[in-house]
Amino acid sequence: ILDFRAFQFSQSLIYAIEEINNNSSLLPGISLGYKIYDSCSSTAIGVRMAMALVNGNENAVLDEPCTKPAQVQAIVGETYSSVSMAICLSSKQKYPSFLRTIPSDYYQSRALAEMVKYFGWTWVGAIRRDDDYGNSGMAAFIEAAEQLGICLEYTLPFFRTYSQEKVLRIIEQIKSSTSRVIVGFVDTWDLEILVQAFFEHNVTGYQWVGTEAWIFDLELATADKYSILQGAIGLSIPNTTVTGLKEFILDIHPLKSAGSDIFTRFWEALFKCKYKIQNDSDDTTVCTGQEKLSEVENTFTDMSLMPIFTNVYKAVYAVAHTLHDLFEHLKRVHFQTKEGEEVYFDKNGDPPAKYEIINWQKNKEHQHEFVNVGFYDSSFPARNRLAVNMTSVVWVPVSVCSESCPPGTRKAVQKGKPICCFDCIPCAEGEINGIKCTQCHQDYWSNPSRDKCIKKETEFLSYEETMGILLTAVSIIGAFITLVIAIMFFRYKNTPIVRANNSELSFLLLFSLSLCFLCSLTFIGRPSEWSCVLRHTAFGITFVLCISCVLGKTIVVLMAFRATLPGSNVMKWFGPPQQRLSVLAFTLIQVLICVLWLTTSPPFPYNNMHYYKDKIILECHLGSTIGFWAVLGYIGLLALLCFILAFLARKLPDNFNEAKFITFSMLIFCAVWITFIPAYVSSPGKFTVAVEIFAILASSFGLLFCIFLPKCYIIILKPEKNTKKQIMGKVLAKVGHSSKLATHKILFKGLDASE
Q1: How are beta strands 123-129 and 181-185 bridged, if at all?
Q2: What percent of the chain has pLDDT above 70?
Q3: Half-sphere exposure in the Cβ direction for 379 (13 Å, CA)
Q4: Mean pLDDT, residues 443-454
Q5: Which residues, in sequence order, are CB contacts of 182 under 8 Å at separation 6+?
Q6: Could you give the CA distance from residue 615 to residue 172 in angstroms, rounded to a whole number?
Q7: Which of the listed residues 2, 536, 632, 638 has the most CB atoms within 10 Å of its CB?
Q8: How far is it, in rounded angstroms, from Cα 626 to Cα 117?
Q9: Residue 416: left (phi > 0), alpha (psi -120 to 50), or beta?
Q10: Is the pTM value of this prediction over 0.85?
Q11: What is the superkingdom listed in this entry's lineage (predicted)?
């Protein structure tokens, strides 16, 4: 069977040689000759023909030694990789003179992988020609694909001599697969067989990715009557031409010199006629020798492979320029064709890898046409090597093992499967996904969809929220009630009930209670340096002032009744000056503790990110916990002392029951603050502050109501009991008539420091 393509390649070689021989500036005085052998696409024949060219012995066999000197300076060919590798190989260490005018399949494989990645196909199958071309090319493709994150579901060898059984296994493998893209590292003849097999077994709807070996082959496109390859996309040699080459190829007269027998066979195959007809066959056309190429349309007249013919042309010119440079003592092959195309080779003897991206599309006549939709140029920077006009591409399916993970999830590779097969697992709280789940910055937290880090919500007890409003209202109400009671006491300051309760300490106690109510406001709002310092020191000092006043009143009550006993002179040791001094002394101790605390390690604003993952608690760090508990412990010590003294004075005469009220108030005070400790330690975030405010308010209200509410009741609702007789009745009865006058004076002088 005559291969018209081989005749086209031969014509391209002859045209280049004749053009060089007619060029006076290239190899002047030297003419190039040629001898063309047909390898029949056979490796063995190709090697034998190469040996014949080398030593001139056409009948030599492979194991015979070379007996003649080399007859040729260069060998051009073969068009197939397998034969070329056997003849020349491509190791620059062993064969430094091997050059090629078509890019290496290594670059084509990488370009194919980049193109597959560009279209988002991460799960593909592959069919390779079972020879050096297919196996080496597919190995390079797999290597590049793995680097780009592309997985191959299968890679199947195929050769046109495979049995029907082997072809059927290939078909079944493809039909059972889930990938929708097939990378075909095969040639035209292989695909013609596969396309027919695919049609017979209804294997359709696949996206084919092709190499330059078949993607631009019009003969294959014509043979694909069932559109199995519709939408195929692949790499093609750039569409270049050489002036006059087309016309020379179609001028078949030079072939006459190749031998009459070959010419006769060629002519008969070209025009489907016979010079000699046997047995008078009626259905055979007789060749006249006057047939015209314009009247036929076949592979020989098809110029779609002109880029390949151009490479043959450039190969001959590369040989000529190399010889020319040797005569000029140059070693680098670098020249331009007459069309201005620059031809050069890298250190491996390869030209730059330049490809056009071809897409098979149907025209109006429902025939395949090759549409240029992009390019690939290895000489460009990596990010610019591949360019595709997506608007011009048809039939781009989805081919993935697993769909891309949605925002907020990460990939988890399925056990025993390639990395392209994965499950999507939600990112953990506080993480977002990029390539993988990454932790947000400590001040940020992931949003509900886990695709963006947002600023963490800050939490503190503010005046705007319900709890803050309620606590503020209660604090102000407490301060207001205290003010009302103080006004009432001032209004009735000369009445026995006010005077008998030591009006000076009472007013000081009311003043300190109002401060206790108001100091709770410093705990509300965004913590700042001044508020953190103020809230604990103001709380500690005002409460000590308050408890000191209550303690002073308790001691006065005890001393007053001790003074009614015959011969007792204790009141002179605890008169009004001593009462004021005791309150001042107790308070100054607390002031000293606070000063030490603030000078060593004061409280400061702190962003607590440990309690909640998604919130930042704005709080006041205690600084020195020893200082805080020292302040609190000192208050507790005074409260305990006050409670003990009041408890001892609980059985004083009923009409004068100040000690009972103090005892009850101290009982409430201690209960509140004992309960406060575990609640304070265990409460989270702003509730810690709320617990402390509640303890302040509860203990303050306990003191206010237990000590002053009974007196207000008598002043407002029972004024008839607001007399000296009512207050001192039981006392006078108990101490006896002999000391009535003395008791009366001591009580009202001792209990009221204003006298």
Answers
A1: parallel
A2: 85
A3: 10
A4: 88
A5: 124, 125, 126, 127, 174, 206, 207, 208, 209
A6: 57
A7: 536
A8: 65
A9: left
A10: no
A11: Eukaryota
